[in-house]
């Protein structure tokens, strides 16, 4: 892996998300490209809303546009300092257009996106994941990691698996991008309705994964409420990396329908890797 994108609202830098991006770059020996979304074409937030959104000191008596430029430059400075302190090479992209379109274009020429689940460009208060993050997860042309609110390392990788091509594709993507995690414990997690069977061949999957990992466990859970059982299992986990096959395109079909991945990224405090087929 060579190029990782750290995607952020130019006026609101999440330092915890940035720290995780630096960790991933150190792990994979990659460059971190900061994509600072300025949203100059469609900014709907007032000057006061920008002040309330931003992190840092305000400038009295200046326009909303000048205030945004100030916050952006302050955040870029902080980004560079964090990368330098963390020993990571970095680059800066200041994207002025429509945020979603800018991110999708950037993703076409990148290996991975790291994003904060609360990223938003609306003046309306949103729940997480925000509408912007949902759209990024649906449309991105490279895998996306939802950065955790706190991060204490990785002891276990959890591959959510429903037998579909897309769930296997996500696993392949993760293995390709993170060969450095080959010494971690792996759990293949499937959730079915009572009496149901997991589609695909999880034993062939385990055999294949044995070429990449030494410690592999198969876990199949049965419950009438697939979403609740999935969350019940994941929420008590610590120091895990959760891998999901897709978001919103019918991938991980029954396991994530109608929006299980959204619920997971809303509630989990662990990193979530999402790739769609």
From TrEMBL:
Q: Which domain of life is it from?
A: Bacteria
SUPFAM superfamilies given in the database record: Adenine nucleotide alpha hydrolases-like (SSF52402)
Gene3D superfamilies assigned to the protein according to its UniProt record, in alphabetical order: 3.40.50.12370
Q: Please state what the protein is called.
A: Universal stress protein
């Amino acid at each position: 892996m060579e190029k990782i994108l750290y995607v952020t609202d130019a006026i609101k830098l999440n330092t915890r998300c940035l720290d995780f991006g630096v960790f991933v770059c150190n792990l994979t020996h990659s460059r971190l490209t900061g994509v600072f979304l300025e949203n100059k074409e469609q900014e709907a937030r007032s000057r006061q809303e920008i002040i309330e959104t931003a992190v840092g000191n305000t400038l009295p008596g200046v326009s909303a546009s000048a205030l945004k430029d100030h916050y952006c430059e302050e955040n870029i400075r902080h980004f560079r300092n964090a990368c330098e302190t963390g020993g990571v090479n970095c680059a800066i992209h200041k994207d002025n257009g429509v945020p979603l379109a800018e991110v999708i274009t950037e993703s076409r020429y990148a290996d991975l996106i790291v994003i904060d689940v609360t990223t938003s460009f609306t003046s309306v208060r949103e729940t997480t994941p925000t509408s912007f993050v949902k759209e990024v997860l649906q449309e991105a042309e490279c895998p996306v990691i939802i950065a955790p609110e706190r991060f204490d390392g990785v002891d276990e990788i959890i591959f959510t698996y429903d037998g579909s091509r897309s769930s296997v594709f996500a696993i392949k993507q993760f293995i390709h991008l993170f060969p450095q995690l080959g010494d971690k414990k792996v759990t293949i997690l499937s959730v079915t309705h009572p009496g149901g069977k997991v589609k695909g061949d999880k034993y062939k999957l385990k055999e294949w994964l044995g070429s990449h990992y030494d410690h592999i466990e198969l876990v199949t859970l049965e419950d009438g409420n697939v979403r609740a059982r999935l969350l019940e299992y994941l929420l008590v986990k610590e120091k895990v990396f959760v891998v999901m096959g897709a978001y919103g395109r019918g991938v991980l079909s029954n396991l994530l329908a109608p929006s299980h991945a959204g619920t997971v990224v809303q509630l989990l405090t662990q990193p979530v890797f999402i790739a769609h087929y």
